[in-house]
Amino acid sequence: MTTIYLDNNATTQVAPEVLEAMLPYLRDLYGNPSSMHSFGGQVGRSLKLAREQVAALIGATPEEIIFTSCGTESDNTAIRSALTTSPGKRHIVTTRVEHPAIHALVANLAQEGYRVTELAVDGEGRLNLEHYAKSLTPDTAVVSVMWANNETGVLFPVEEMAVMARHKGILFHTDAVQAVGKIPIDLRNSAIDMLSLSGHKLHAAKGVGALYVRKGTKFSPFLIGGHQERGRRGGTENVASLIGFGVACELAGRNLEKENTTVKNLRDKLENDLLARIPNSRVNGDRQNRLPNTSNISFEYVEGEAILLRLNEFGICASSGSACTSGSLQPSHVLRAMGVPFTMAHGSIRFSLSIYNTEPEIDFVIEKFPPIIDELRALSPYWEVGQSVCETRDFGGV
Amino acid sequence: MWEYSEKTLEHFLHPRNVGEVENPDGTALVGNIACGDALKLTFKLDEHGKIKEAKFKTFGCASAIAAASALTEMIKGMSVEEAEKLTNQDIADYLDGLPKEKMHCSVMGREALEKAIAHYKGVPVPEVEGKVVCECFGVTEPEIERVVRENGLKTIEEVTDYTKAGGGCEGCHEAIQEIIDRVRAEMKPATGTRPKLTNIKKIKMIEETLEREIRPALRQDGGDIELIDVVGNKVLVATRGACASCASVHLTLKGFVEAKLRELVWPELEVEEVSQ
What we know:
The structure holds 2 protein chains of 2 kinds.
Chain A: E1 4-5, H1 16-27, H2 38-57, E2 65-68, H3 71-84, E3 91-95, H4 100-111, E4 115-119, H5 129-135, E5 140-144, H6 158-167, E6 171-175, E7 194-198, E8 209-213, H7 239-277, E9 281-283, E10 294-299, H8 304-312, E11 316-317, E12 319-320, H9 323-326, H10 333-337, H11 342-345, E13 348-352, H12 359-379, H13 383-390
Parallel strand pairs in A: 1-11, 3-4, 3-5, 5-6, 6-7
Antiparallel strand pairs in A: 2-8, 7-8, 9-10, 10-13, 12-13
Helix pairs in contact in A: 1-7, 2-7, 3-4, 7-12, 8-12
Chain B: H1 6-13, E1 26-32, E2 37-45, E3 51-59, H2 62-75, H3 80-84, H4 88-94, H5 103-121, E4 132-134, E5 139-140, H6 141-151, H7 156-163, H8 173-187, H9 199-220, E6 223-231, E7 234-241, H10 249-264, E8 270-273
Parallel strand pairs in B: 7-8
Antiparallel strand pairs in B: 1-2, 2-3, 4-5, 6-7
């Protein structure tokens, strides 16, 4: 059975060009870039190129890039550094819909005695900037707001928010793991101080990420060790994967337009066709302000895990915000923060596309998906009862 | 991804007995949409009082659908009395086990069955009324007590796996721990370290004790005793011969039979006479 992979916000396939670039460093060029011999030195030069490639994708300079092991490490490094370099300030501003890399981290920090403001979102997953402005206080050390939501794809106005933070002398970090490579990002004229990105979300291998730290920003390392990354992150570099990361960033830059045309069109086709064919379904999140590859749709009166396992029978990979797939017993914190009704939240499916998806794949999903929902609804004790209620219900303006 | 058994996946992909029985003798809806799963069970009896037809409708994940499908297959052909004895573990076993985080699906099956039987009998549902401990999922104290007792649960996490209680805001964790401690203290026999007794072993030991220790004494007086059933810690017996007409049979049953069974089998056993 062929796999139809529509779960690219979870992870992506390694691009063939990336793999090619990595292989020599797994086979022959195993030197340590820190070594004083040319066998290691040549590896150091390749890493330098990778750093330039990553920096170029986001409009940064190579010195502003710190390589890490993943997005989570980048996030942890950024927040801890901001707190350490802002002594006396005990307040953090973030949102209710962050990835666990921030969400769980600030929960821990709250236990350590920091005050945390988690900004609410509306039914479309949008922030209220007036509330945000009011949340910034002289005690605020750092703001951390994701650029794009991993579940809904909704984009936050982080550049505007960073300017507002800067006016008050507050550091601004953004988790841009889902945004980098999908939308244009240029940090040259931005007020963002720190930005996290991850390799495996943009067709590099797993196990590499980066943290952008604006030149002049005070920094305190998270991993203490050797002098790698100019003393800002100890530990021998994941050489092969970082070199692949560089190539992936270069490819992402070249594919940005395709991402926002071809991929977006496929996403829209999938979304519109499913909504048209399946009653009692709706999109979660602001459709006007979204990543081009992501679609989060709720199908009322069915449960997400059941949908996923039926899709699995056809080789179709997606994910869900239902309780049963989240590992907890409640539906996704993002959908709950948006106030998505329970009848909808449990039956949410996230499709996330990439440049490797094709129109025939999308057609196949559009063909196979509606009968799955029909069958599961036939099983559901709420379907017949709910249907009549739903016709007149206002789902909040979708 | 959950590690589902082949049988669970098979029942999920090809569920048996989907729908609703027409003019059912027993019907029940348990769970609710906010909690993420719900099960509607209906059954119909034949002229001999055996379950002729059982159907289900489920809103929920793969294991919830599979557990409901399994339940309907299991109870078909059973008498109401037999069906009443079905435990959540029986449902899980039928599916070759469920991931521990999914055991609440088997509990939901048992609850639906119990409620449908109560509906058939026209009696109130046993043990569900009570103080709500977990507000997030609406789980009551008796429900938690029961899964702890029947499944030998030891931790809050296990209680969450079996009932969902404590899986939301976690505000009730302290209360759940208190229930676990209390029920486990009650379960512990006075003598201390006794191994857990399965129902089958318990029945076997009761039968052996009756045969070895009790019947010889009763027979000396021309009486006898027959084991009818064991329900939890209730030992249902019928008296025979001289015992059946003896005025002080009650004293014999409590003072002698029950005392012996408590001493040799399980300290919480209670003997009750039934007329059969």
